């Protein structure tokens, strides 16, 4: 069963009409954001341009009853194509990200119904319910429902999701753990374990980690799907060091996928640091080593190394202009590229920010012997008209050997 997202917008409109009078009676509080984004891109290598207008609405209505423990949440967007009639996309022009009613008991019980992410555990989004038993710094939750269509984000009863989770918050860290079951047409599509933790043993050291492990529906073995581990050390204001590891592998759905999936892995190790020379000047750098274990790749194409070094100035020549100058050198899976970037930024009276960015990239493919040079330049501005109104405008130009691209984007938003 499928329903159009436009129908949900109509439902939201009537809910808001119903809720507004309750605000005058019970003292409900309303917060949210309304924005309009305009995006235009002209590419010389394409016969068509892209011109999209996207409106967004976020509404949080709280204290809808006398006890103040009922709330309503909504986030949605609608996109309009103002450019070529040949433009097409697999995702719908209307999308509902959040639409739910929420009840918070006397510090112990939490319930939500509608389109939601589970409380304290953003592993799945469901059109269903979420129940949580809460304590002072921890909780156990359960969620179940229909999963939004992964291609259109519309309602689709073929997809289901459910699971259980536990979360813990301490002064020096937090942790989340979950088990999730995905179904498709009544059969198991995917099952996985998820965990995330952050730990701050001191003000100088921080540790972050997250992992997902999938259950093979054929062998019932458990194997790692992705993981991120990052350790940061900042002994003082002047210097800092971070080391990290990433692991990614394609996720398999056993019922809703009708094609074979290459589940080989990708790993990366990185180290980055910064050192402040004075109050205004600092150096930074990063090294990244990435490996691909794909059966279809030749051995010499399975690794990538990236080096970056940069220089920052927070107040260039006492002009209140911030400058960032950096260069990147990469040897990446059979190709090489060098990038040189410079960026300037300045605030005016704490209401206007202007940014100027330019980059030069030279790339060479060892496989095809193709060489290209690309120049990118960006100019953007952000202006706070008032505490509630903000506008932004940006232009980006790209000049390459075989194409030129011009992109203009703007946004106006109202926060209430």
Can you offer a commentary on this structure?
- β5 (94-104) and β6 (109-116) form a beta hairpin.
- The protein is built from one helix and 24 strands.
- The protein has one helix spanning 5-26; strands at 2-3, 29-43, 50-62, 70-81, 94-104, 109-116, 126-134, 138-146, 155-156, 159-170, 173-184, 187-199, 205-215, 222-236, 239-249, 265-276, 281-293, 303-313, 321-332, 335-348, 352-365, 371-384, 389-399, 404-415.
- Helices cover 5% and strands 64% of the residues.
- The protein is globular, with a radius of gyration of 25 Å.
- By secondary structure, it is mainly beta.
- It has a 22-stranded antiparallel β-barrel. A two-stranded antiparallel ribbon has the order 1-9.
- Mean pLDDT is 89; it is low at 1-5.
What's the arrangement of secondary structure elements?
Blueprint (H helix, E strand, L loop, with lengths): L1 E2 L1 H22 L2 E15 L6 E13 L7 E12 L12 E11 L4 E8 L9 E9 L3 E9 L8 E2 L2 E12 L2 E12 L2 E13 L5 E11 L6 E15 L2 E11 L15 E12 L4 E13 L9 E11 L7 E12 L2 E14 L3 E14 L5 E14 L4 E11 L4 E12 L1
Antiparallel strand pairs: 1-9, 2-3, 2-24, 3-4, 4-5, 5-6, 6-7, 7-8, 8-10, 10-11, 11-12, 12-13, 13-14, 14-15, 15-16, 16-17, 17-18, 18-19, 19-20, 20-21, 21-22, 22-23, 23-24
Output the keywords.
mainly beta; 416 residues; 1 helix; 5% helix; 22-stranded antiparallel beta barrel; single chain; disordered N terminus; two-stranded antiparallel ribbon
Main sheet overview: 22 strands, antiparallel, barrel
Summed over residues and divided by their number, the pLDDT gives a mean of: 89
What's the helical proportion of residues? Answer: under 10%
**Alpha carbon gyration radius:** 25 Å
Unreliable sequence segments: 1-5
Q: How many helical elements?
A: 1
Which of globular, elongated, flat, extended, rod-shaped describes the shape?
globular
> How many E-type strands?
24
């Amino acid at each position: 069963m499928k329903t159009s997202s436009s129908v949900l917008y109509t439902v939201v409109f009537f809910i808001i009409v119903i809720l507004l009078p309750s605000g005058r009676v019970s003292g409900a509080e309303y917060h949210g954001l309304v924005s309009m984004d305009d995006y235009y891109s002209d590419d010389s290598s394409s016969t068509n341009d892209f011109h999209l207008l996207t409106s967004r609405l976020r509404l949080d209505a709280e204290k809808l009853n006398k006890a103040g423990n009922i709330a309503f949440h909504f986030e949605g967007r609608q996109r309009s194509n103002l450019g070529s009639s040949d433009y097409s996309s697999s995702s719908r022009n209307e999308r509902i990200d959040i639409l739910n009613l929420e009840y918070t008991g006397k510090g112990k019980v939490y319930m939500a119904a509608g389109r939601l992410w589970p409380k304290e555990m953003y592993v799945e989004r469901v059109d269903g319910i979420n129940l949580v038993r809460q304590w002072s710094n921890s909780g156990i939750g359960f969620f179940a429902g229909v999963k939004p269509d992964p291609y259109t984000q519309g309602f689709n009863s073929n997809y289901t999701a459910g699971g259980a989770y536990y979360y813990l918050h301490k002064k020096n860290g937090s942790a989340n753990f979950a088990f999730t079951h995905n179904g498709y047409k009544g059969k198991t599509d995917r099952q996985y374990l998820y965990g995330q933790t952050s730990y701050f043993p001191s003000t100088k050291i921080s540790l972050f980690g997250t992992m997902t492990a999938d259950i093979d529906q054929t062998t019932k073995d458990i194997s790692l799907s992705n993981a991120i581990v990052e350790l940061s050390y900042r002994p003082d204001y002047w210097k800092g060091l971070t080391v990290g590891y990433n692991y990614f592998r394609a996720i398999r759905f056993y019922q809703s996928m009708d094609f074979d999936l290459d589940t080989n892995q990708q790993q990366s190790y990185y180290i980055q640091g910064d050192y402040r020379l004075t109050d205004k000047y600092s150096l930074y750098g990063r090294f990244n080593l990435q490996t691909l274990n794909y059966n279809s790749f030749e051995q010499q194409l399975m690794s990538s190394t990236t080096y970056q070094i940069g220089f920052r100035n927070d107040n260039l020549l006492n002009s209140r202009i911030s400058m960032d100058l950096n260069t990147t050198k990469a040897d990446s899976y059979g190709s090489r590229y060098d990038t040189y970037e410079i960026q300037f930024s300045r605030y005016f009276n704490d209401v206007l920010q202007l940014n100027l960015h330019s980059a030069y990239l030279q790339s060479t493919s060892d496989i095809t012997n193709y060489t290209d040079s690309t120049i990118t330049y960006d100019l953007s501005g952000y202006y706070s008209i008032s505490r509630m109104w903000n506008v932004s405008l940006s232009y980006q130009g790209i000049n390459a050997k075989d194409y030129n691209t011009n992109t203009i984007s703007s946004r106006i938003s109202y926060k209430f």
